[in-house]
Amino acid sequence: MKWIGVVLLAASFLLPPVFAGDFYVNLASQILIAAIFALSLNLLVGYGGMTSLGHASYLGVAAYISALLTSRYGFGHGLAAIISIAGTTGMAAFFGVVALRATGLGFLMITLAFSQVLWGLAYRMSNVTNGDNGIAGLTRPMPFGISLDSAVSFYWFALIVTVVALLMMTIFVSSSFGSSLKGVRDQPRRMAALGFNPWMIRWITFIYAGFWCGVSGLLYVYYNKYIHPTSLSITSSAEALLGVIAGGSGTLGGPVVGAALVLLLKNYASAYIERWNMLLGLVFLFIVLVMPTGIVPGLNRLARGLQGRPQ
Amino acid sequence: MQFWIIQGLNSLSLGGLLFLLSSGFSLIFGLMRVANLTHGAFFMLGTYFGATALRSWDGLNIWVTALGAGIAVAAIGGLFERLVLTRLKTNPLGQVLVTLGMSFIISDACLMLWGGDSIPVPTPQNLQSPTRVLGFVFPTYRLVLVVCAIGAAIVLYFLLERTRLGAMIRAGVDDRQMARAVGIPVSNLFTVVFCLGAGIAGAAGVLGGPILSAYPGLDADMLPLALIVVILGGIGSLLGAFVGSFIIGFIYTFGTALFPELAYIILFLPMIFVIAFRPQGLFGRLSA
User: Fold this and answer.
1) What local confidence, expressed as pLDDT, does residue A61 receive?
2) List of chain A residues whose C-beta atoms are within 8 Å of the C-beta of residue B97
3) How many A-B residue pairs are in contact by the CB < 8 A criterion?
């Protein structure tokens, strides 16, 4: 049963460029970007038990660095991408040192505080970031001389990156390091007694999650060719967190499904009503109150039930 | 010289306002272990209520308005606590997420009802004339705000340290299970404290109105300040919230005046230092 689901999901990602129009292909690209974003957050929330409310920081900072380097300082896309990912990962290493002094709600508050600082900086340092106007007129890279300006070519590019990201994160959580991470999530004291270093395990995960979030930020800025402080806002972090929780944290498929749902909801809802933030809030309440474990674990339980296996 | 004195007084008044904002946040966090991310939205709701009331009825007293708005916001907070938060007793993460969801709902509702333009809140007529401090002219209202914060601190201190309700709250903060075991109705206390915290935030919103005015995004501006004050001062500590508010008031005011673009970074430095060297905050007993 599980494999059928996986195959269907994989096939649904290969189909859009074949028959759908540009609008839907673009929508699918956005889903892929949101999926990497949510997957990287899921490493912290689902596998590490560290709920971050500032994950948009890494997406936004990676996007801003790339945007500034290419548009203002004349860097090529390749070098800009490397600097931006390295910078974002370094920032994650620093933020991790501070935020991981605390766990639980303290961790959440510190990550939230950091992301609010960056959001405030993006708004106020207008001579660098162009403030509320954002940075427009950006270009997409041309890997191996292939233009990514059409919707379909960008979709293939995003799909390749997403598959690599998903693979790398799958390897990460199913490795022995991933097991120790889950151990630290569930029983930090026992893990410490066994000779593991919970802090180091959390920190490495934090940096790894920051790295992949930076990658999603690069795709984000390539796709939009524009960057605005809202990308760093708490709403942006909250959307990703909602995707993770709605889909099912601690599973690999969950965040992909959740991110896709949030993005589709946002696109379709904003076509009919202006009140996206209110809807987002209501969905938050609904998900947390009605299905706290998320959609994918819920479906898995249903599938097991259909096969008559004990739950 | 004038710069330092005027900015010093500005820092004091901002500190007073921050205390009014963060004392409720700290109480709620201390007792319920809920990082109430709706707190900024409660503050903003108070400001909008105050702006509407004070602009609709000429000569309405700002203190009465603050009381009224405080009660209204406390009622909204109480409903939210009873209907939503109590269902998530065993799920602290879920509680934070619903407070975040609630803050989105409130801020979007404010945008829908009051529109996107900022609405100035009139300063009370009898406080409009400036006061001379050490030979410098300074708005009277800002000084009154400091007095008001000190008054609120004293009232809260007596409420917590000298009344039966306060003793029960302190018992709940120190050891929730033991408090339950000796017959303290902790769940009812949760509702009381949440209403109280929300109410203070709502009233603070009205009082801060003449300085800040009501605008969309006020909640997102105030929430991080409350977070920093509480992390700095120590969670659940009234004294911590008081000292932390004035420290942040000074740092933010002078930071904005001297290095306008870096104010946000300067603001977070003390927080980072405290977290690194004293995770429980300056006066806290709980670690975050």
Assistant:
1) 93
2) 241, 245, 284, 288
3) 122
A186 to chain B, closest Cα gap in Å: 15
Q: How far is B274 from chain A (nearest CA, A)?
A: 10
- Gap from B174 CA to chain A (nearest CA, Å): 18
Kindly tell me if the per-residue pLDDT of B84 is higher than 80: yes
Instruction: Report CB contact under 8 Å: A284, B107.
Output: no
Does this model's pTM top 0.80? My answer is: yes
Question: Chain B within 8 Å of A245 (Cβ-Cβ)?
Answer: yes
Q: Rounded to an integer, what is the distance from CA B188 to the centroid of its chain?
A: 22
What's the half-sphere exposure (Cβ side, CA atoms, 13 Å) at B87? 15
> Is B131 strand, coil or helix?
strand
The per-residue pLDDT of chain B, averaged, comes to 85
Element (H, E) at A133: none
Q: Chain B contact for A104, CB < 8 A?
A: yes
Q: How near does any CA of chain A get to the CA of B273, in Å?
A: 9
How does pLDDT run across A219-272, given as a tens digit for each residue? 999 998 888 888 888 888 988 888 888 888 888 888 888 888 888 888 887 777
Q: ipTM of this predicted complex?
A: 0.79
Record the tokens describing residue B45, joined without a space. 């709701």
Whether A101 has its CB under 8 Å from any CB of chain B: the answer is yes
Q: Angle at which helices B218-233 and B238-258 pack, to 10 degrees? A: 120
Q: Nearest by CB to A282, which of B37, B105, B263?
A: B105
A308 pLDDT band, cuts 50/70/90, is low
Q: Which domains does chain B have, with CATH numbers?
A: 16-123+138-277 (1.10.3470)
pLDDT for A57 equals 92
For the stretch B284-287, contacts whose Cβ atoms lie closer than 8 Å and that sit 24 or more positions apart, written own/partner, are B284/B233, B284/B234, B284/B235, B284/B236, B284/B237, B284/B240, B285/B174, B285/B234, B285/B236, B285/B237, B286/B30, B286/B173, B286/B234, B286/B235, B286/B236, B287/A102, B287/A106
Task: State the residue for tokens 């108070």.
Answer: B46
Whether the CB-CB separation of A80 and A70 falls below 8 Å is answered with yes
- Contact residues on chain A for B223, CB-CB shorter than 8 A: 116
